[in-house]
Amino acid sequence: MKFCCFPYCVVSCFISTLTFTVVNAIDEDVISETFKTKGSTRIVQTENTSDVYCKSIIACADMCLSIPQCCLVSYSKGTSTCRIDTSERYCVETETLDEWRFIQQNSYQGRPIDCNDIPDKCQSGVYKVFPNQTQGFDVYCEMNLDEGHWTVFQRRENGYVDFDRGWNKYKLGFGNPKHEFWLGNRLEHHNGHGFSTKDSDNDNHSSHCATMYPGAWWFNACVTSDLNGQYFLKTPDSAHRGVYWRSWKGENYSLKGSLMMMRRVSN
């Protein structure tokens, strides 16, 4: 997981350390107003981190506020250690450790709706987004291809994840966003075609395309493409099978990988 300190916090996040001097006995209440925290998470040590002794998580957060380059710290109560990140890259790698807590300044304006709102300096990876007033969920943001800021909603790479699933599974999403996965079916229609799964027939064929050609897709009558089809390491046993795109590779070739992404065209 990567966490991102948004660049517009640079203007507003360096609140006076007096905040913590006055109310340093309140601890969690104060932390929640100025920072958001995540348990069992430590910033990975790099040349841009420094470990210093701190008596409390409040003192660690207070120290971050006093350093212009700091938006992210992590704290260990057991060792009284505050790890400060001053990379100014806005995004840092973290690791899971039970006794540590990750602390991020909470004063940027708003939350990311999708990968468009992830700053340019952030690397590709998993981020939490909050579209349409939701509670938020994890997505993979592709920040390198074609100017970046792509929200990836499908990935095939090795066949380890079964894509021959029912409607509810596709609606909720499945897999691991770092590897093979389907984000969730918010796209019930594509180019005028309904989305079909093995238990929901919405194609324009007299038969059920998603059972004739296993894999859920925006079938028409029936298949000219199906990137959610059965994964084959070798040539499929019959035509129109596999991770399939007929106009590109023909009717009897299964792709070894696919990536489906979307990006907002306006703000």
TrEMBL record:
Pfam families found in the cross-reference section: Fibrinogen_C (PF00147)
Domain of life according to the entry: Eukaryota
Domain Fibrinogen C-terminal: residue ranges: 106-185, 190-266
Entry annotated with the keyword Cell cycle: no
Keyword Signal among record annotations: yes
Signal peptide: 1-25
Keywords: Disulfide bond, Signal
Assigned GO CC terms: extracellular space
Listed PANTHER family: FIBRINOGEN C-TERMINAL DOMAIN-CONTAINING PROTEIN-RELATED (PTHR19143:SF458), FIBRINOGEN/TENASCIN/ANGIOPOEITIN (PTHR19143)
Protein name, per record: Fibrinogen C-terminal domain-containing protein
